[in-house]
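ok so i was messing around last nite and threw this chain in just to see what happens. nothing serious, just curious
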Amino acid sequence: LDVSGVVFHYRGSDDRYSLDFERAKAACKANDASVATPEQMRAAFEDGFERCDAGWLADQTVRYPIKNPRARCYGDKKAKPGIRTYGRRFANETYDVYCFVDQIGR
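result:
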């Protein structure tokens, strides 16, 4: 899978897990980015990206990438590396967000 660009984690200024889906999209847009797709997250994971923070993706699922499983970061894959998923969530639930930018310093 070849995706050019960068996936980055964004946390609201209020607190961890404070963004509903609309606020998550707005946060990425305010940073000249878009909400990352599952394919972009997969490419970032394959490039070594890891975060123990659940965040929105563009398909309204909530996921996080883990290379080195550890307590509180096992998710649905127990002690195996991979992208954890909470599945599709209601838009009013709050999490962080993973954004995607195709160029740094536009």
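not much to say yet. The two ends are 24 Å apart (CA to CA).
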